[in-house]
Structure formats: structure tokens, C-alpha cells
Amino acid sequence: MEFKNHITSGIGFGLTSSIITTIGLMVGLSSATNLRIAVIGGVITIALVDALSDAFAMHISQESTGDESAKDIWASTFSTLGAKFFFAIIFIVPVLLLSLQTAIIVSIAMGLLLITVFSVWIAQSQNENPAKVVAEHLFIAIVVIVLAYFAGAWIATMFG
Fold first, then answer.
1. Long-range pairs for 139-146 at CB < 8 Å and ≥24 separation?
2. What secondary structure letter does DSSP report for 66?
């Protein structure tokens, strides 16, 4: 894999993983607690910890193949870290500016839009049908969001 592909791979992984993880966390925390501070704390924590842990995991994964140069490994590591942090921390903005329920809706819409744009770019770069790729990726994202909501509601019922 060439250097540019390592960066693209890290950004693609970071974007997708951070959006789905952050929105899932926000929806779950919101449905479990309905507390703005819990969602803010969750987003900041996930932006830092998840970005660092996934960048480290990407680094170890790339090293374990023995096929990649140190430059390529670090390119994947830092592009994953940057994308994971950026695409997680942007979801703090709606929570700071809007009511919690409105912020959750805006964040879901924003995340699905970003996934759609990236999915179209992937499809076009690989000469695939964009509608099929977008539908597949959005379906997975929506399943995660719905599961997070019900997990949060169950937690509120069991422990609230």
C-alpha cells in the first residue's frame, strides 16, 4: 500500500469509527440519563481516549504484518488519531449550543451526512454504485444508533 493510501485508510477508519462510536455514545447516554453533562463528558472522553486507543491499535496492526515501512505505519497511526479526534470532538458543538434533545438529532443528522459524503467518495473512487454503498453504510450506522438508544433506555430502567 502506498503512503497516500495509508493516510486515506487512517482517515476513513477514523471518520467512520468516531462518528458511529460518538453518536452511539451520545444517544445511549442521553436516553439513559438525559443529562447534558453526561453527554459532554462522554464526547470529550471518547474523543481523547478512543482516538488514542484506536491509533495505537492501528499502529500495532500495521506493525504486525511486517510488510509496512515505519513511515507508512506512522502515517496510518497519525491519520487515524487526527480523524478519530476531529470527527468525535465536532459533536460537542451541537451539545454546547442547543438543547440536549435537539443536539442529539442534529448530531445524528450531521453524522449520517458525513458518512454519506464519505461513502459516495469511496464508491466513486472504486467505480461502484454510490446508492448501494451509501445504503449499506447508513443501514449499519442506523442499526448502531437504534441499539444505543435501547441500551440507554434499558440502563435507565434497570439502574435509574
1. 140/20, 141/19, 141/20, 141/23, 141/111, 141/112, 141/115, 142/112, 144/20, 144/23, 144/24, 145/23, 145/24, 145/27, 145/108
2. S
Residue type, 113: L
Give one word for 128, left, alpha or beta, with left for phi > 0 and alpha for psi -120 to 50: beta
In angstroms, the CA 95 to CA 80 distance is 24
| Residue 25, C-alpha cell as written in the block | 455514545
Indicate the range of 1-10, 52-61, 79-88, 121-130 predicted with least confidence.
1-10
Query: Is residue 88 a contact partner of residue 21, using CB atoms and an 8 Å limit?
Result: yes
Question: Residues 96-120: what's their mean pLDDT?
Answer: 97
Length of the chain as a residue count = 160
